[in-house]
Amino acid sequence: MNLAQLLERLRHDPSFMACVTHWEVLPAQPARYADFPPGLDPRLIEALAHRGIRRLYTHQAEAIAHALAGRSVVVVTPTASGKTLTYNLPVLSTILKEPAARALYLFPTKALAQDQVAELQELGRYLDVEIKSYVYDGDTPDSLRPTIRQAGQVVITNPDMLHTGILPHHTRWVRLFENLRYVVIDELHAYRGVFGSHLANVIRRLRRICRFYGSDPVFLCASATIANPKELAERLTGKEVHLVDQNGAPRGEKHFIFYNPPVVTRDGLREPVLKAARRVAGMFLQNGIQTIVFTRTRLNTEVLVTYLKEDLARGKAGLTEKRAPQIRGYRGGYLPSQRREIERGLRTGEVLGVVSTNALELGIDIGQLEAAVLAGYPGTIASAWQQAGRAGRRQGISAAVLVASSSPLDQFLVNNPDYFFGRSPEHALINPDNLMILASHLKCAAFELPFEDGEAFGLDPDSTREILAYLEEEKILRHVGGRWHWMSENFPAEDISLRSASAENFVIIDTTGPQHRVIGEMDRLAAMTMLHDHAIYIHEGQQYHVDKLDWEERKAYVHQVDVDYYTDAQLAVTVRPLDVFKSQRELGLEKAFGEVMTAAKATIFKKIKLHTHENVGWGEIHLPEDEMHTAAYWLQVPEEIAQQFEPDGLQSALVGLSHLLESLAPMYLMCDPRDLRAVAQIKSPFTGRPTLYLYDAYPGGIGLAEKAYDLHTLLLTAALERVQSCPCESGCPSCVGPQGTGKAETRRLLLLALEDGGPVN
Amino acid sequence: MDLRERLRLMRAAGPRRPAARPEPAPETAGAPPERPGAAEAHAQGGSSPEDCRLGHGGAAAPAPARCPEASTGEPRAADAAHLPGSRIAGRLLPTPYGPAFCVETWYPLDQRRGRVRLAEVLAVPGQGWERIGRHPLWADFDPTRAAFFDTETTGLERGAGTAIFLAGVGRFVGGGFRIRQFFLRDYPEEPAFLQALAAELSEASALVTFNGKSFDWPVLTSRLVLQRQRLPEIPHLDLLYPARRLWREVVASCRLVDLEAAVLGEHRDGDIPGEQIPRLYFEYLRTGAAAPLEPVLAHNRLDILSLVALAGYLGHAAADPVAAAPGGVPLTGAELLAMGRWLLELGEPLAAARALEAALDRGLPGPYVAAGHRLLAAAYKRLAWYDKALAHWQLLAQEGRYSYEACVELAKYYEHRARDYPRAREVAQAALERLQRQRLLAGLGEAPDPRWAREVAELRHRLARLEGKLARQAGGHSPAGSQRAERESYDR
After folding, report:
1. pLDDT at position A42, please?
2. Hey, do A3-25+252-421 and A33-244 end up sharing a CATH topology, with the first three levels equal?
3. Ranges B2-6, B87-91, B164-168, B384-388, most confident
4. Which of A284, B55, B263, B345 fits B61 for a cystine, CB–CB 3.0-4.6 Å?
5. Predicted local distance difference test score (pLDDT) of residue A307
6. Domain ranges in chain A?
7. Of chain B residues 149-188, which have a CB less than 8 A from chain A?
8. What is the pLDDT of residue B327?
9. Cβ–Cβ below 8 Å for B4 and A486
10. Cα distance between residue B147 and residue B125, in whole Å
């Protein structure tokens, strides 16, 4: 059966359709072409003709015209719409005319940078001049670096390398900075939250250095679909950016199916996502349809590869065992050569099926497959579209199936397809002015070039001056002669990581064998509850006993065990508001946004028997308290609502609502679920009322809580919808949380919260 | 809450640790106690107490009468300047960007650093410089036109925020040795400081540094870029590389202070550790008191004097290793061995052979004896002095880590030179055995080294060829054909 036939059969298969909550058909779209914009070098047009490109798609022509006119641009079109040409053509055209001109490309990962060099070389083959393009990252050999600094016309790197390896050494990159015409930022949507907030500051530093050398580069950005590409690009680059989002590339017919695994237990639990994904992907593969499966974790990738190989080896419908080797896994941790081999196999068709983490979501060239199966919602609409976009040919039909897990987020989504297919409400949020982040980069900037009196960095000149004065008190800067000079032997960029919220990760060391080895790392807060002494830590399916957590050295020593229990630690978090920035009554509740100090302390842990969930023991945890100064949004339950509940009932309603908000808010805020935390207090010492806090899990906050404050009613509506549509009796992990109770109270609280309660006193 | 308050709160938050990381202790106490009798003027024509200690006769060390600067006398002139709270006295040099502070110190030519006199560098023949600089142009190097250059910086890592605050330039001028130390009194003076430094350096036809190619020069270039100033490239002799060649095997670390002790026989007392220097400078900037910087300036001068002495030592050693006697002491066997290896690499087998003969003659530390024979044999072979090489190969072939290699050399020799095929076969077989024994000793569990397999294959091939030759010899074939074959398969 080919894909069309298979889809037709599925449509008439009642057991399959019983699980389908939505079947969207996106019609085929013909290509829309435009002429080459004036100003594009004729040699380049000729080279393109050799590659079979005689016209451009409308969005390409529009973006290139902006770029050649010196206007920054962000292109938002689906996967495989020829986005790379929108920046490669203006860059190459400029370099052909002016060989001294330079361009800097930023990609979020090293693998993507390597791909790009290949792409540029491919174009360069048809030009009779050599375009000197190089990757400059941690893997670049020392012997090559001086050449790249002097002669590289296109320098391809990542934000981390720009931050520690290029900007602090700008005096060795004079050629680049004097002649920098374009900065390319691909995968723009990857730069959100903490990472994006850091990158925005790295770009502030970049532009400051460019000003010193007399250049003012144009920014060429490309992004997956998000709600606010123009805003994100402008906040990241600090420049006016033109949006190009009318896709001119052709598209074949595409089917997008939402699949909710069947309820398999009497208490409403659904079939596990992996099992369902195995069934769905197996269907495609058994029919010889090239398929990519995305899983949420590396472990699941391996498990699913094993399952699918098994299924195909068994052979069905005349298929032979030969198919099993055509199923491959793909994830971080594979060797680069192995990854290249799999990518090549996908392009040539030798690989029939690949199971991947989101590693293949970004623009690595694997050609276009016929089917994509998403084993669990990847967390954001943008990611889901990127993953689904891996299946989709310019001609012919393709299919993507989202298999929902039991998490509230997945369940909300499959039951509310309009949310997904309607206008994307997802905002990629960054807060370049987060004080911690900004001050860190201001330090780096001061190392790179002394600040002048009256100079502004992100903030207004007065606030900039205030931070500079603070750094002078810290004996890092010296203010003399109207300038702020670096006065420390430290190299500040090395102490600042762009990616992790907390630079202080704990490493997990397995001491089972004679050779101790590091098996993973974990942030501080998670370490408190998962790596405390005597915890059972589970890593890739293997149990480990934590022998010692060395808090000072940031190390956890573990050894492999095989026991019939797991541990569950309790984290007591208190939140103390320091300053209220805004507050108002909205419908039934009072909402507020402000600065808070949180204190987290791991108290005790319970040993819980596997399968029966009996409590078989407990222990105390002796770890220091962890404080954080951050931003929070909080809800207060007014007296007239609180009095309608028993105290216990209100408590479970608050806990249920915490769980719902913690899991649903990341969808609207486009953040990692770990970036946001919720705490409920039945009587807050600060407000004196039952209060629920939702706070940014990063010192100083990155704008999530503030956005949540704005989206208050929307969030509560989504929570109510989730509770009401959940098929469970009294509560389950898909709605009010793992304790499995309090569904009715939570629902009642939400209904009251969304009622117009009128003015309060 | 104002920004600073919020920053403080955020910084203060975080994990509560019983023992927080210690704050960097204030380093005011880092300055060494003043030495008694350190009250003499430290200025032009005189020398600081540290410098006197270096001198052969104490405080005398007068500047040679011929140098004009010396005769300008004490810095009582209009341009005289003093760093506050210290005995550091200097002059203000006018530049287009304002004045730059400069301290000048003179040394006589027979000033010693350890046992080496400064003047020894002046007598190095051109060949020494050519070898050290690895380019024929260095043969014309004239130390009297060179700048011996060393800097002290605000950080030990490179990067745009690392500044030079003290740059010493030593030159042979008017019959003496003059060190000009340019000192950055505060950041706003940097354009003038760099201008004055650049002017001083551009008078020189070459730079001599220790690790300057990867540190001092790039940092200077970086500071000039930041001030939008330029300094043309100056030919640069970085002594770190030749020093490593000569002493890597025998000196634990090739840092300048370690070489001073091990090679020049000079030990510094109360010298300031390099990593403390940035903090002392920052402390001076904050307090304005320059006294703690006195040892920093002294440290910088000592570095430059050592640089000169080391250049003399290395120059003589490179020019004529056998005859060289820097500071009156001939080179050790180990130094001669290193010179021999270096000369071989430079493609000078004759000079190498002479150095290695002398090395074996003067005696080598136990582990290096075999290396001496091996290198000497290699030099002889390069010279086609096979008779001489033979003795060393035979010695090495008996035992030790080079015996396999020596057997192979002997096999080549007997096969192609002596045409003694039975002997050739004998040693080739011995080589094979030794190789296999080495392999056993190297550890059985290891993955086979591809080189080892290749060597075994080569030996087997050689043995087969030798069997063929032996058979042909026994059969009395005419040598004409076999000679051609031999030429084809000829190996070095």
Report:
1. 93
2. yes
3. B164-168
4. B55
5. 84
6. 3-25+252-421, 33-244, 435-495, 506-563, 572-602+626-754
7. 154-161, 163, 186-188
8. 92
9. no
10. 18
Contact B154 A489 (CB under 8 A): yes
| Per-residue pLDDT tens digits for A22-48 | 999 999 989 999 999 999 999 999 999
Q: Which residues lie closer than 8 Å to A622 by C-beta, 6 or more apart? A: A533
A435-495 domain in CATH 1.10.10?
A: yes
Specify the CATH number of the domain A33-244: 3.40.50.300
Is B26 at the interface with chain A, CB within 8 A? Answer: no
Mean pLDDT score of chain A:
87
Residue A555, min C-alpha distance to chain B (Å): 15
Tell me the three-class secondary structure of chain B, residue by residue.
Answer: CCHHHHHHHHHHCEECCCCCCCCCCCHHHHCCCCCCCCCCCCCCCCCCHHHHHHCCCCCCCCCCCCCHHHHCCCCCCCCEEECCCCCCEEEEEEECCEEEEEEEEEECCCCEECCEEHHHHHHCCHHHHHHHHCCHHHHHCCHHHEEEEEEEECCCCCCCCCCEEEEEEEEEECCEEEEEEEECCCHHHHHHHHHHHHHHHHCCCEEEECCCCCCHHHHHHHHHHHCCCCCCCCCEEECHHHHHHHHCCCCCCCCHHHHHHHHHCCCCCCCCCHHHHHHHHHHHHHHCCCHHHHHHHHHHHHHHHHHHHHHHHHHHHHHCCCCCCHHHCCCCHHHHHHHHHHHHHCCCHHHHHHHHHHHHHHCCCHHHHHHHHHHHHHHHHHHCCHHHHHHHHHHHHHCCCCHHHHHHHHHHHHHHHCCCHHHHHHHHHHHHHHHHHHHHHCCCCCCCCHHHHHHHHHHHHHHHHHHHHHHHHHHCCCHHHHHHHHHHCCCC
CA distance B6 to chain A (A): 8
Which of A202-206, B418-422, B476-480 is predicted least confidently?
B476-480
- For the whole model, what pTM was predicted? 0.80
**Domain covering A572-602+626-754: architecture:** 2-Layer Sandwich (3.30)
A533-563 pLDDT, tens digit per residue, is 999 887 655 678 999 999 888 899 999 988 8
Q: Do A531 and A522 form a contact (C-beta atoms < 8 A)?
A: yes
- Report the b/e string of B318-352 with b at 16+ CB within 10 A: bbbbbebebbeebbbbbbbbbbbbbbbeeebbebb
CA distance A111 to A366: 13
**Of the options 3.30.565.10, 3.60.10.10, 3.40.50.300, 2.30.30.220, the CATH number for the domain spanning A3-25+252-421:** 3.40.50.300
Tokens for B14, please give them: 């975080």
Using CA atoms, how far apart are residues A756 and A677, in angstroms rounded to an integer? 27
Q: What is the pLDDT of residues B384-417, one digit of tens each?
A: 999 999 999 999 988 888 888 899 999 999 999 8
Contact A286, A280 (CB under 8 A): no
Q: Is A37 exposed, middle or buried (0-12, 13-18, 19+ CB in 10 A)?
A: buried
pLDDT at A237: 97
Is the pLDDT at A503 greater than 80? The verdict is no
Angle between helices B277-287 and B294-319 (to 10 degrees): 150
Higher pLDDT, A175 or B6: A175
- Which of B1, B8, B9 has the highest number of chain A CBs within 10 A, making it the mutation to test binding with A? B9
